[in-house]
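User: Teach me something about this protein's shape.
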Amino acid sequence: MLIPIINRSHHPLPEYQTAHAAGLDVRANLAEAVTLKPLQRALIPTGLFLEIPVGYEVQVRPRSGLAYKHGIGIVNSPGTIDADYRGELKVLLVNLSDTDFLVQDGERIAQLVVARHEVIDWQPAEVLSETARGSGGYGSTGVQ
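Assistant: First, the predicted structure itself:
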């Protein structure tokens, strides 16, 4: 799949880190480092602009290493970039640790996963089909 991309950063394009990785690592594009204090969030620019094909989205997901080592996540995880968005890709990072975290220019801050999606039409109904689970939610499948 080819996705047109404009790179206004001075970093390489997002890339897969291993042969079978699902996500492409994306880098911060910063004039100066950003300090994230505990529980603080910041919108981090990447310098990237995408033209995603209709019927697809790009999901912005946390990097597991940043989450494990530093408590850094993404507030709206996974974030969705829609096919009609043409603005700069930015990542909404949050510091869930108890110490400051310094986001450096060029640091790999998130991963991007391209996913197909369906466009649906609602079919109004008065009754839904029966299932073994029924209306059980939030932890109901573990109750005996």
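Now, about its shape. Residues 33 and 49 are 21 Å apart (CA to CA). Helices lie at 64-70. If you'd like, I can walk through any region in more detail.
User: That's plenty for now, thanks!
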